[in-house]
# Entry
Amino acid sequence: MTSEDSRPNFHGLDVDEVIDDLRLMLISRAIDDREIALQKQSRVFFQIAGAGHEALGVGLARHLRAGYDWFFPYYRDLALVLGLGVTPLAVLQQAVGCADDPSSGGRQMPSHWGDKARNIVTQSSPTGSQCLPAVGCAEAGRYIVRRPNLPGCTAYGDELTYVSLGEGACSEGEVWESFNTAATLHLPVLFCVADNGFAISVPSSDQAPAPISELVRGFRGLHIFKVDGTDYVAVRRKAKTVVDYVRAGTGPALLHAIVTRPYSHSAADTQAKYRSADELASESARDPIARLSAALIAAGVLTDERLDALRAEARQVVADATAAAIAGPRPDPKTVLDHVVALPDVGDEGDPGETGEPVAFGEAIKRALHEQMALDQRIRVFGEDVADARDAVLANVEGKGGVFGTTHGLQREFGQERCYNTPLAEANIIGRAVGQGVRGLRPAPEIQFFDYIWPAMQQLRSEAATTRWRSNGAFSCPMVVRVPIGGYLTGGSIWHSQCGESIFGHIPGLIVAFPSRAADAVGLLRTAFAANDPVLFCEHKHLLRQPYTVDPFPAEGYRIPFGRGAIRRAGDDLTIVSWGATVEKSLQAASRLAELDGIEIEVIDLRTISPWDHELVARSVASTHRLLVVHEDMITAGFGGEVAAWVGEHCFTDLDAPVRRVGALDTFVAYEPTLEQAILPQVDDIATAALDLATF
Ligand SMILES: Cc1ncc(C[n+]2csc(CCOP(=O)(O)OP(=O)(O)O)c2C)c(N)n1
Ligand SMILES: [Mg+2]
# Structure
């Protein structure tokens, strides 16, 4: 009961600390109980409890450092975030959807933590998707700490990144991708798997053939620990060992903690439907609060009366927080579009100049990458095959630099820390970029082919694009995702030739650039690196070496604001709006119609499709009175549908003919050249549609 220095202790732990932690555990449980009651009164609209996970949370928090370490907790981590200093008021403000909710301003469900000052990164809902960003965050910390002068970036040599998830979420593939990279790069990541035996109603025996601590044994370098997460003393001891281990920088660790789930999965669930009364009763015997209270009473450190007083005090704290949260202002519906995206202010487009060396599209992008990386050490380029070669052989070989050669020479010039290969895993690439972007770096991940972007969709859409909005502007996620796209390759086929930008145009928070010539690619890439939000930068493969894309390399400072199109050819009779590879085809069709039919077509290149230049299109349609939208993507739900609908709605009185579209047939791109030609829009198709429309 007393140690050598005669301070009261409990199993070697400071009694005051233990009582404080018990107090937090009681507050955590009281918040759950209160939220459940509030939901029945329609004061909160969802509830998911931290009950059963309290000892794990407070025990870990004792050894972690808010505002120093980085945190990617999940929804059951209520006790952990309280231990890190998040107040009951902040928790209740989110639960009731108060405007003052510091995590999200009423935008996110309860228990979706986010606290900028404490480095608790805004949380999303997809299970397990926090793991790859956590790895990227740890990776960023290691990079930043060696470069102390990077603007807006701080890191500590002994920081760690905490990420937690349930045992059910461990079935997600991205989680395994995160173990892979954390172990390969020896990153200071603490994975905490809170195993309560169920994922909603699915028992862990339906998830995997063995518990997670056994499954991960093959990851060399991942240290594995197990703990009874309902035993506060055991958690405290293990947490210290695990945290010390990860903090020392030796590598990642996985803590597999067995916990309980005394309450149903969420307020929308009734666990009595799938768990027997006996089972629930035996689990309640392992309740972490009951266990710690009983142990403290047995040790003579606590009395029943004191426990009752602590419990009453916890309820009061929560009642006061609830009253304050309910009395707080409701969010203003006028703010719903705030913090979707913050377009960079790069001023006017200016003049690209005529004196630069003439370069084609691909070469221009390559040079712009060299230029931007030289200017900004926060930029790191990574992806599949983007590096040149292993350092050991680099002096004797030419270097790969991407399957299209666009990143050639970046590793040689800037080193492996700034241009490196990743595992062949697209979610890994974008997820790690998310974590790096949140830390203030300017990651420039490459997806090798647009056709393989889908495994990264979760990270792009649910993480990168939502970060700013879901945190009500507290966090942002800059990244420049370069992606070779498109067909007209003769032989590319279905998985090397698709477009599909409309799907990304449908994602708020994601900027989509789609340049068609060299100067634009440079001007837009410079702007993309100035942005504080994710940019999908589409590089059309067919354009990389085409002579018609050649421009003098634009003067320093030439940047194109997002959402500003360009008139490629002036005309009075008809407007064509296009982007990417079909801009040139539209120009050819326009020349043909001018020569043969005397029809003058105005061709607009949108250059970015999200945002897109409504004003320029409206102005052109006001003078030509006819619109044809041409794109390479399929017609159905292609982005042309959006342009056509907007013009129909806003420029109706200017129109003398229906808006028409030309695009790919509603199928995939085929391998055999005549099939590809039949599927993708050709100059003839554009010319025919334009002639029809001009003579309507
Ligand atoms: C990708 C995804 N699929 C499904 C869901 C719905 N869902 C939310 S929590 C959950 C179960 C998670 O179980 P586990 O990982 O064991 O964590 P626990 O809730 O038990 O702590 C499911 C299926 C989700 N949020 N995300
Ligand atoms: Mg579970």
Remarks:
- The longest helix spans residues 15-40.
- The domain at 12-333 is CATH 3.40.50.970 (Rossmann fold).
